[in-house]
Amino acid sequence: MCKLPLQSHKPKSINHYRFLHTRYLYQLKELFSCLKHHLALKHHCLLCDEANEYRICTHCQGFLTRPHHSCQRCALPLQHFALFCGQCLKQPPAYDAVFSPYLYQTPLNQLLYDYKQKGHEYVGKALGDLFCQSVSLHYQQQHLTLPTLVTPVPLHWQDQWRRGFNQAELFSRLLSKHLALEHFDQIKRIKRSQPQKELTRKQRINNLRNSFVVNGDLKGQSIAIVDDVMTTGATANTVSTTLKKAGATQVIVWVLARTPFN
């Protein structure tokens, strides 16, 4: 029987192992580079659909309308510069200030509609990202002191059950985490009022009377109320009054978008 010669097991040179080591390190580096690039571009912009690290890319954020002039108390958009609007001069609201980075105009109004009425979770996260980014930048640029607590405008339990979520609560919890603020969830809506959309400012105020209650003592606390949109400010004013009756010394309102008075 013919026997095949045994293959030689001659040991490899040290240079051979160095070559393999270098090659494997290079391949591993390439793998991590691709993975990093993939993770950085894990989103698609809601407005232009381009792969991006943000859910709304920085280019498309430029299409979101910002106010040129606004009231220093209620953030009402103004045509010309003035410290306060006529309504705040005539009857100052219970809250101390409002911060709103955007106007309730296209395309932001459509995005808010898609989130609130259609329950598009990705849209909600994109708006939450914008909200956190805007509030953080505002407080840094203006060298302002953050409040100690943050709370959402609550929905009545029947309305929340029907919709399935409270958009203000999502934004509030994101802001709480992003800014490292304590989240306060002990304000409840105990009265289911008529929808505010078709009411005048005076009707909205009457419609909300005795709608909210606070469980707990807020003595000495400063608190930020979070909501998606402010129109007349009636809801924010009623919630602020309730919070101040519970002991809050300062109430700030954070809303993503502001509309003119009806």
Question: Can you describe what's shown?
Answer:
The structure is a single chain. The strands form 4 sheets. Strands 5, 6, 7, 8, 11 and 12 form a 6-stranded parallel sheet that branches. The chain is α/β, with parallel strands linked by helices and 262 residues long. The protein is globular. It has helices at 14-40, 58-61, 86-90, 108-118, 121-141, 157-163, 167-179, 201-208, 234-245; strands spanning 43-44, 51-52, 69-70, 77-78, 97-99, 102-103, 149-152, 182-183, 187-189, 212-214, 222-230, 250-258. The protein is built from 9 helices and 12 strands. Helix 4 crosses helix 5 and helix 5 (121-141) packs across helix 7 (167-179).
How are the elements arranged and paired?
Elements: H1 14-40, E1 43-44, E2 51-52, H2 58-61, E3 69-70, E4 77-78, H3 86-90, E5 97-99, E6 102-103, H4 108-118, H5 121-141, E7 149-152, H6 157-163, H7 167-179, E8 182-183, E9 187-189, H8 201-208, E10 212-214, E11 222-230, H9 234-245, E12 250-258
Parallel strand pairs: 5-12, 6-12, 7-8, 7-11, 11-12
Antiparallel strand pairs: 1-2, 3-4, 9-10
Radius of gyration: 27 Å
Low-confidence stretches: 1-9
- Roughly what percent helix? 40-55%
Shape: globular
> If helices are DSSP runs of H or I spanning 4 or more residues, what is the number of helices?
9
Summarize model confidence as the mean pLDDT.
Answer: 85
- How many strand units? 12
What class do helices, strands and sheet pairing give? alpha/beta
**Largest beta sheet, briefly?**
6 strands, parallel
Strand portion, in percent? 15-25%
Terminal Cα separation, in Å?
A: 103 Å
Q: What is the chain-wise order of helices and strands? A: HEEHEEHEEHHEHHEEHEEHE
